[in-house]
User: Fold these one by one.
Assistant:
Number 1:
Amino acid sequence: MRLPEVLIFLASWGVARAAPGKFWHISDLHLDPDYKVSEDPLQVCPSAGSQPVPNAGPWGNYLCDSPWILINSSIYAMKEIEPEPDFILWTGDDTPHVPNERLSEVAVLQIVKQLTQLIREAFPGAFYSEKLPGLSRAGRIVVLNTNLYYSSNEQTASMADPSQQFQWLDEVLTKASQAGEMVYIIGHVPPGFFEKTRNKAWFREGFNEEYLKVVQRHHRIIAGQFFGHHHTDSFRMFYDGAGAPISVMFLTPGVTPWKTTLPGVVNGANNPGIRVFEYDRATLSLQDMVTYFLNLSQANALGAPRWELEYRVTEAYGVPDAGARSMHAALGRIASDQGALQRYYVYNSVSYDTRACDEACRAEHVCALREVAFDRYAACLRGPGVAPAPCLALLPAALLGVRALLVS
Ligand SMILES: [Zn+2]
């Protein structure tokens, strides 16, 4: 995956309106400006590399990054579903998956400009900034550049605190705490492990540990963490020393359907997804998370995009809200109940991969969700960290449940 571009944030804080508030979180739009519906399978999109792309449709293909028409449709679907969000979190990765040599700085800036203009056009009144100061008395958004911690970033490999970002973060959170503010942390590359393949972490271990320490120290004022990069729909739990859930990080799915080329991942494409959160404006506590999606093959077959509700997290896992305790309970269900695991697994690829999640799959997902620390993740995969699945005979019924949920 390419080193992501800048993190971008767009906002108009509706402090005067009554709770609950709503905000969008979108990520990984990955525009492929050269996508075209060509009959030559080698001419469809540069983002497929040397893979042939048969049956390319107007709305995109699972082997390619997003054509403009798909991104345009996702932004206008947001406008139709929730036209007046308090703000929009946009956590980067705008350019196609092509070798760096193929993408000049001018081309990158052009893509960022084009996407920014589109979002501004759909949501006028909103303003744009890379780093935002406090948005209301109660709230502050902290935008991190976690590319500094990325294991492929050689420039920061030997540094203890690249750009002194950890020191800055600690100061910002300490001041926020003194001022009685609550905080959302957003970034692109997340800490922890990729849930679709074993032992794949993005941060270097030292940076991963440091991030965990920050969350443990300041969790009382961290109302949510929002990241992207995976293109999948997942979440990460954070615990204190006594094992109590203290924070949750939501990983929002990508708009791009691009099938990852990461070694070890089987069929890692996804349907395009967009997500809205419902939250309490006074406390920033997360009340619900709602994901909408486009069934890409269906859109191409019908010749029209239909963005549909995929799921509400409270309904999917039978929890009262989207806070850390509730998501801990949701994880407990995913780990121990085959129906909940299968539902989670289908949502993970935005209803693209409907295969059964077997024992190895369950261990990979549950350990990635539960353990952000390197040593604890390894111990989880080795040991009895994953509760046993109740009974495989339940699987067909569970799958039927998912189907019913998806067509409704
Ligand atoms: Zn990406």
Number 2:
Amino acid sequence: MVGKVYLVGAGPGDPDLLTMKAHRLIRSATVIVLDRLVSDDIRFMFPASARVIDVGKSASNHTLPQEEINQLLVDLARAGHDVLRLKGGDPFVFGRGGEEALVLAASGIPFDVVPGITSAQGCAASLRVPLTHRGIATGLRFVTGHLKGDEALELDWPGLADPATTLVVYMGLSSIGGIAARLVVEGRDPATPVLAVTRATHADERHLLTSLRNVAQDAARARLGSPALFIVGEVAGLAAVLQAAGVGFEEMLDAAE
Ligand SMILES: C[S@@+](CC[C@H](N)C(=O)[O-])C[C@H]1O[C@@H](n2cnc3c(N)ncnc32)[C@H](O)[C@@H]1O
């Protein structure tokens, strides 16, 4: 009997943000293949009897190449195991879940997809910042800031420069300076507010409010670590209003001038 693979989103970290379906699958799992971004609080929920295969042990040297992860899922299912493939955030938002789904489909392995709260939503909710807001932001774009070697980021720069678009940059810790500079060149106001958030919804979450003009230096000065996400746009400025209402910022550097 071939097993089934469940591609499941674990959300941004806080176990309370798991879907009920994800929670049920975690509690009954026998084989779990998981990524680095799955939080410790969620790992503590795994059944003691489950076989746990960590394919993203550290960013440095233990991460299994994607092709090997795909093959592992196929092999486990062919060996008759139902597999919980657990990923941070949502499996289909910069999670390479689509690649795994394609390989499973091509291999005739049955699979289900369980969405998770993507980190953009986790960050926004944690900071009480709406990602769209009538009169301020009519659209929302999720982009990757991940650079492959020396390659330039190929993004829709004119579209991203639209002041009515909220822009969320995933994997942008090392590229945010270049992204901010390019957005300004394309016409986005350098005073546009930017929220940088690390480890959103974890107990040690950190965040700062800055501007496109200052984000690179402020992020470096604050020594922001990984994982980090940037919310760019006028909605980010609402964070200052919410702070004035007593909603908790642990750290805030100079906001847009
Ligand atoms: C490979 S992508 C995975 C995204 C994930 N599938 C999702 O839907 O959130 C990794 C990036 O997600 C963002 N990220 C994930 N979890 C985060 C968190 N708790 N706080 C801030 N950013 C996070 C960071 O930009 C990180 O570099």
